[in-house]
Design brief:
The structure holds three protein chains of three kinds.
Chain A lengths: L12 H4 L1 H31 L2 E3 L5 E3 L3 H7 L2 H17 L2 H12 L6 H13 L2 H12 L5 H10 L12 H26 L3 H9 L4 H12 L1 H17 L2 H6 L11 H10 L6 H32 L1
Antiparallel strand pairs in A: 1-2
Helix pairs in contact in A: 2-15, 4-9, 4-12, 5-9, 6-9, 7-9, 9-12, 12-15, 14-15
Chain B lengths: L1 H17 L5 E6 L4 H17 L4 E6 L2 H14 L4 E5 L5 H5 L7 H6 L2 H4 L1 H4 L3 E2 L2 E2 L2 E5 L2 E6 H7 L7 H13 L3 E4 L6 H15 L1 H8 L8 H14 L13 H9 L3 E7 L3 H6 L7 E4 L12 E2 L2 E5 L7 H12 L1 H11 L14 H11 L4 E2 L2 H4 L2 H16 L4 H15 L2
Parallel strand pairs in B: 1-2, 1-3, 8-9, 11-13
Antiparallel strand pairs in B: 3-12, 4-5, 6-12, 7-9, 7-10
Helix pairs in contact in B: 2-16, 10-11, 10-12, 10-19, 19-20
Chain C lengths: L10 H18 L1 H10 L3 H5 L12 H11 L2 H32 L5 H13 L3 H13 L6 H25 L3 H9 L4 H12 L1 H16 L3 H6 L8 H4 L11 H21 L1 H9 L6
Helix pairs in contact in C: 2-14, 4-14, 5-8, 5-11, 6-8, 8-11, 9-10, 11-15
Classes of the chains: A mainly alpha, B alpha/beta, C mainly alpha.
Chain lengths: ~300, ~400, ~280
């Protein structure tokens, strides 16, 4: 049967080039907003970091002056060290989340309610989480101190002690983070190919061997996302430090994100240039991770 | 469509912010608490009654948020009158030309006489930049009943204070309550130690950056302070406590003294203490014969240089400076009028404070207002560190000196 | 199913599991229980130091009533809604467009623009802080809900675009191809062919963005000062008085502030989880 081909209609320039133009038209609103509020400010912050500016009066050019000062600034190194601590310890949320996900991956009555309730901490604002844990840790009336006193006989004020305070805050941050990772793994577990498990079980694979060789590889996408959000979350931590200790005691829990805010915008902060310089350093650190993640994602794209 | 509505709304917002009616002044302040709020409402009502042609549009901000808000609205959308603080705290705004010179208001209304005690803290470069309307005393509030039970007389000298502390500690009571989480209570302690060891002029020189922190006189202050810190005369774990969280210890009798501003009395009573259980004593003498200066943080009103109705704003400042207005205001606030012609307060503690401040050798504005912001933050962090690690005294002083060299260039 | 279903395990394990579940839950939610207790505690308890014991009397109605009556939390919650809902509409809407663009069209810059959106969303907020605040000041939008709406819409567009693009990519391309062959314009393809299929993704993303923006604390403190525009996260702190800590009010306020996202979560659970885990199921 011959198909009648209608003569090509003469379309206007727009319709002919539609496919080429369309993506840009669709992208325009989002891209413009993003440029104004995200991309341009990054450039501007980098620019401001070369000035000495109190936010009120004139700004004076000092080139790399802020960065030179940073090299000699003890507070900067303390913040850096704390950020590193956050990064390393936050990774605990990945196995912890996996553990809880495995624990909850059953079909008993009411398990859906349990899963929702376990996920609860992620839905609450970090401000509320910070307040809760501050009371929990309080030396005289906090439950944790009471518990420790019952066991060891001496009181411990986590947030007052420069040795423990950061760990206390990280623990508070882990609470919602573990909940997040847990959900990622629960979904991942749901999507595991049941036939593979059956086949492995038929081969008498059990317990840890089964877990390591069959389950974990299939959870790789979930693990990747979990690691990404955990790294980003660790480097970004601001809310908890701000609420729980204001960076104290005497600056020992400071992280770069909070230090920057203190220097530029807080009650005692009149140093926009220096604050911007700190932000640039934090940005560069994160860019290392971001680039790594993006290249992984793009590689996956190309293969997938 | 949404964008269009949005831009229209933004336009309307900008427009409304710039219109001002003749005979209207816009007042920005931060009295977000019940008592100060009531006091302001009364003040505004009285002013409008005395000046029928002028209405006051009052924008009341949250107390803490105001401290960052002020720098923004002074530039972007200045009111006609703005609340702020005296001393070095107003210096950044004065130096940036954001406040109006009101020396004429002082001269026209004889304020150099009636507001004498606060005059120096309102002066920069020989000119006056605002009007003070209230201050309050700082001192050691103590458990009169515990003192009696332990047979302790209110100490007048350093030696007596240290002895009292030793006695209290031996009886299982922490001598001093303090909560250093928010840092500023440490500033009060350093101020008083420095004022008593080295005197008012030295303290002013130190906070204006003329003296290095490694100076032996500064070290002497810390050495003296160590006499309270090293034997553990402060409550434990104060770095985790805000000043209000340290209060229960005082109320429960686990601590016997609290160096604080007068605002501490109301929560003490709310926690269950009766008035005769609370005593007030002036910080004791350390260097023999050194005239006693006090910390008396002063709240003020200013006129932004970008104000639209400066004439009526000046009338407002003059009104606030008057004896009657200050009496009424401070009656509600529970604080002290700056005007020396105002009526003396009835309250036992305010009365004590009134005499202390009236006879003071000088009035400091509190460390975080006398020292510029950067120095204040670094300083108070150093004080807190010292209170937890007194053995690090030299390292702390060296760090503070580093900050000072940078800040006061 | 992994681990082995408990139904198949010994009765001992089965029963221990049933017991462990509620115990684990209580331990896990312990801090939350603490806050709920404090919110029904009278103020005098706190001044006297009774923080974790039984409240001397049930002050729940008092506290929650005081929170709404004497504080501005009603205003703060209203502001939070005023900020969050337009942002959700804006961000999700914009990302439908940009996600469609990146998923459907091959052009050289495609992957680069995608990279920019993703990276931009991961940057630390502090690098944006000073310029965004200055921009907001200069356009007169400082201390208004509009400033926050515009910023959040722009910033969340990054994450949303990533999300939508991945979702649209998973739709069958044949649909679009056949529509093109029939001469349907690109815009009509987007509006009538693709959008209807995106409903579950839109639902999931909306719930997520609602939670993220509602819970934002940092930008609220940077861009807003007055109570007329302050959302509830930053406003919680102002429940403390100038001189006196009102922790019972703050905790009551915290519970109230946490309710909308929680309600959202419980109602739209499936969507919430779908949204968070979209990437986790790619294999």
């Amino acid at each position: 049967m011959t198909t009648a081909v209608s003569p090509p209609v003469q379309l206007g320039w727009f319709r002919r080039n539609q496919i080429k133009l369309a993506p840009w038209l669709f992208l325009a609103p989002g891209l413009i907003m993003f440029f104004i509020y995200v991309l341009a400010p990054i450039g501007q912050s980098i620019w401001i970091s070369f000035f000495d500016w109190d936010g009120l009066g004139k700004a004076t050019w000092i080139g790399l002056g802020n960065y030179v000062e940073m090299l000699d600034d003890t507070n900067f190194y303390i913040s850096l060290k704390n950020n590193l601590l956050w990064l390393v310890l936050y990774m605990l949320s990945v196995p912890a989340g996996l553990g809880i996900a495995l624990f909850l991956n059953q079909n008993v009555v009411g398990i859906r309610l349990y899963k929702s309730l376990f996920f609860f901490p992620f839905v609450i604002s970090q401000v509320v989480v910070g307040l809760m844990f501050t009371w929990f840790y309080a030396p005289d009336f906090g439950l944790l101190s009471g518990l420790i006193q019952a066991i060891t006989g001496s009181k411990v004020a986590i947030l007052a002690d420069d040795r423990y305070a950061t760990y206390g805050i990280i623990a508070a941050g882990l609470w919602p983070q573990i909940a997040y990772v847990m959900i990622l793994y629960l979904t991942g577990l749901n999507n595991i190919n049941p036939e593979q498990i059956e086949a492995a079980r038929m081969d008498h694979a059990k317990g840890f061997a089964l877990f390591w060789h069959i389950i974990l590889p299939q959870l790789r996408p979930a693990t990747f996302i979990a690691v990404v959000v955990t790294v980003i979350g660790a480097l970004r931590s601001f809310d908890l430090v701000s609420i729980m200790t204001h960076g104290g005691p005497y600056g020992s829990t400071r992280v770069l994100s909070y230090y920057m805010y203190e220097q530029a915008l807080s009650e005692y902060g009149y140093r926009m240039g220096y604050g911007a310089a700190i932000a640039v350093v934090l940005f560069l650190i994160m860019m290392v991770f971001i680039t790594f993640f993006i290249t992984r994602m793009i590689a996956q794209e190309r293969n997938g | 469509m949404f964008i269009k509505r949005l831009s229209l709304a933004a336009f309307a917002l900008a427009l409304s912010a710039s219109t001002v009616l003749a005979g209207e002044i816009v007042l920005n302040s931060d009295q977000s608490d019940p008592a100060p709020k009531k006091a302001m409402e009364q003040l505004i009502a009285d002013f409008q009654a005395a000046n029928p042609g002028i209405t006051v549009k009052w924008n009341n901000f949250d107390h803490e948020g105001y401290k960052s808000a002020i720098n923004n609205f002074l530039k972007a959308n200045p009111p006609d009158v703005a609340a702020w603080y005296a001393g070095n705290r107003m210096a950044p705004q004065v130096k940036a030309g954001l406040f109006e010179d009101v020396t004429d208001v002082w001269e026209k209304n004889g304020l150099n006489d009636t507001l004498k005690s606060a005059a120096s803290s309102m002066t920069i470069d020989g000119k006056k930049w605002g009007v003070p309307y209230t201050y309050y005393q700082w001192g050691i509030y103590y458990r009169a009943d515990i003192f009696k039970a332990q047979g302790i007389e209110p100490p007048k000298t350093w030696a007596e204070l240290v002895a009292a502390c030793a006695k209290l500690k031996a009886a299982g009571i922490s001598p001093f309550a303090i909560g250093t989480k928010a840092l500023w209570p440490t500033g009060g302690w350093f101020d008083y130690m420095d004022l008593r060891v080295n005197g008012y002029q030295f303290h002013m020189d130190l906070t204006s950056g003329k003296v290095p922190y490694t100076d032996p006189k500064v070290k002497a202050v810390f050495d003296k302070w160590a006499e309270l810190v090293k034997p553990g005369y402060y409550i434990e774990n104060h770095a985790a406590l805000d000043w209000q969280d340290a209060m229960p210890q005082f109320v429960q009798g686990k601590a016997a003294m609290y160096l604080m501003g007068n605002f501490v009395v109301a929560p003490m009573k709310a926690g269950g203490l009766k008035e005769d259980q609370i005593g007030f004593l002036q910080f004791p003498e350390i260097t023999a014969g050194m005239p006693k200066a006090e910390d008396a943080p002063t709240d003020t009103f200013h006129i932004p240089s970008g104000a639209k109705n400066k004439e009526d704003a000046k009338k407002f400042l003059a009104f606030v400076a008057s004896a009657d207005a200050q009496t009424k205001l401070n009656n509600i606030l529970g604080q002290l009028p700056v005007n020396n012609k105002s009526a003396k307060p009835d309250d036992k503690f305010l009365n004590a404070g009134f005499s202390v401040l009236a006879n003071a050798a000088g009035l400091a504005q509190f460390f975080d207002r006398d020292a510029p912001a950067d120095m204040a933050k670094a300083g108070m962090e150093g004080f807190q560190k010292f209170m937890v690690h007194p053995e690090m005294e030299d390292a702390i002083l060296a760090d503070l000196e580093k900050v000072r060299a940078r800040v006061y260039k | 199913m992994f681990p082995t279903p408990v139904q198949k395990a010994s009765p001992f394990i089965r029963i221990s599991y049933q017991i462990m579940l509620p115990v684990a839950l209580i331990v896990w939610l312990f801090p939350l229980i603490g806050v709920a207790l404090t919110s029904v505690r009278p103020a005098s308890d706190l001044a006297a130091g009774n923080y974790f014991g039984m409240p001397s009397y049930f002050a729940g109605f008092e506290n929650y009533g005081a929170v709404f009556r004497d504080s501005l939390i009603g205003q703060f919650i209203l502001n939070s809604f005023k900020i969050t809902i337009p942002t959700v509409i804006g961000a999700v809407g914009l990302s439908c467009l940009s996600g469609f663009a990146l998923a459907n069209y091959q052009f050289k810059a495609n992957l680069w623009i995608f990279f920019i959106f993703v990276a931009g969303n991961f940057v630390p907020a502090q690098i944006l802080m000073v310029p965004v605040r200055d921009l907001t000041l200069r356009t007169g939008l400082y201390d208004s809900v509009y400033g926050l709406i515009l910023f959040h819409t722009a910033f969340q567009a990054g994450f949303c675009t990533l999300f939508m693009r991945n979702f649209i990519k998973s739709l069958p391309f044949a649909l679009i191809e056949s529509a093109r062959v029939e001469g349907v314009s690109e815009w009509k393809i987007f509006a009538y062919v693709v959008m209807p299929l995106m409903r579950p993704a839109i639902a999931a993303l909306s719930v997520l963005i609602f939670t993220f923006v509602w819970n934002d604390y940092f930008w609220a403190t940077v861009m807003v000062q007055g109570a007329h525009a302050m959302p509830v996260t930053a406003g919680l702190y102002s429940l403390n008085g100038q001189w006196v800590a009102a922790w019972h009010l703050v905790s009551a306020g915290s519970i109230v502030a946490a309710l909308p996202p929680v309600a959202m979560f419980f109602l739209m659970q499936k969507h919430f989880i779908a949204g968070l885990t979209l990437g986790a199921t790619k294999g």
